[in-house]
Amino acid sequence: MPGGPKSTRIEIPRWVQLIGLPLLLVLAWVVAGAVRHAVFIFLVALLIALLLNPLVRALGRVWIPRGLAVAIVYLSFAGAVALAILALATVVVQQTRHASHRIDAYFTTESGRPPATGATRDLERFQVWLDTHHLKRVRVEKQGQKFLDSVGTKDVEKYTTKALNWAEGAGLAVVSLLFSVLLVVVVSIYMLLDMHRLASAVDRRFPPAAGTRPLVERMELALGSYVKGQLAVSLIIGTSCGLGIWVLGALGLMPNGGRYALLFGAWAGVAELIPYVGPWLAATPPVLYALVQHPLSALWVALLFLGIQQLEGHVVVPKIMGKSLRLHPLLVIFGLLAGGEIYGFPGILVALPLLAAARAAWEFFAERGISLEEWPEDEPVAEAVGLEVVSSEPAAPAAQ
Fold first, then answer.
1. pLDDT grade, residue 109 (50/70/90)?
2. Exposure letters 328-364 (e unless 16+ CB within 10 A, then b)
3. Measured between alpha carbons, how far is 9 from 367 in angstroms, rounded to an integer?
């Protein structure tokens, strides 16, 4: 037909409104609660399939069979994700191990003349700084030394060993998730192989209006826009944090800042993927590390992250994520809370991509003009839905 398929108006019959919709909602709630893990696996697989389908479609335009195109795209995607996870896990474990040894030595290893630990020397320097700045009444050296004396070698080793075990346990936890990841991979591959058939079926049932994009393509674009924006924000924030810590280390304001700049920058980039609480999680490890080194170092690091958060909130996120997500903040907060209540931390991570895809679907059907069939005011409900009403009163005797 010239001008493309005509978009028809969707009208939901009265009997569906009365019976079908309530039953469907109750059934969906019960089933989703009973098999929420399977639902979550399929939702994540669907998001991945929608995200990768444009690449598969692009390879198909150069005469590559769809099965081969899916293999190429998915192997490249899986390889990139696996390499990133492996690199990050390796850096985290190695740097945590190195940091735990340095903290252990800072509290327990004596050096110099007279022999003293690094913590004791820093405490003496801090007291001297207070004395030279007209704060002699503030006596922290004596109380601080009592605390350091109460912290024995076994205590320090106990806490540093816990930190090391936590880092190694996190690596093992990543490995334990491989089964679920494998399920997501298999399901998303099947979805990718049949995505063109699914898109054609959706277009036949819900043809787009003339001059507009189909439903599946809109969801793909919404997801792609969200992911690009989120990756751009994570890259900018992670690079800014790592570069800022390196500069503080070069200026002597944060001991060993250059050594841990890569670790803290990578952590800030990953934490940025967590909405709202990500910036605070990103700042916690470097501030705690700097606090162990010197209180003034912790102040400089805190000021650095405060400045980066202000830059993120007023410049980076409004410019990048504001254009890609296009959702009201209240809806975003509700989606995050609902995702956390339904599936915990993974639900929080998936909430915003699902909202982006749902927004695209809502806009598509809103353009089609979905409406409910009107209920006549002067007609009983039973007659409106086509039910025959049988009276329970006895029939009057026929007139003789």
1. low
2. eeeebeebbeebeebbeeebbbbbbbbbbbebbeeeb
3. 9
